[in-house]
Amino acid sequence: MAARGSAASLVGASAVLPRHNRRREQIAEQAADLFAERGFHAVRMQDVARASGMTARALYRYYGNKNDLLSYVIQQGQQRLLHAVEPGGPAVPATESFTTMVTLLAPAALQNIRLAPLWQQEARHLGEPGYAQIRANTHRIAGTVRRALGEQYPWLDDYDRDLRGWAVLSVVTSPSHRDGRYAHAGYAGLLADLSLAVATAGQPPADAVRISPQLAGCARSSASRRECLLTVTAAMLRRHGYGGVSIDDVGREAGIAGPAVYRYFDSKSELLLACVERLHEWIALETTRALAAATDDRDVLPALVAGYLRVAMEATDLLAVARTESQHLPDRARERARRFRVDFAAEWVRWARRRCPQLSDAQAVVRVAAALTVIDDLVRVRRLARDPRFAAELTAIVMAIFGAPVRPLPQEGAAGPPIADFRR
Question: Which alpha helices (H) appear in 153-201, and where do they start and end?
Answer without folding.
Answer: 158-173, 188-199
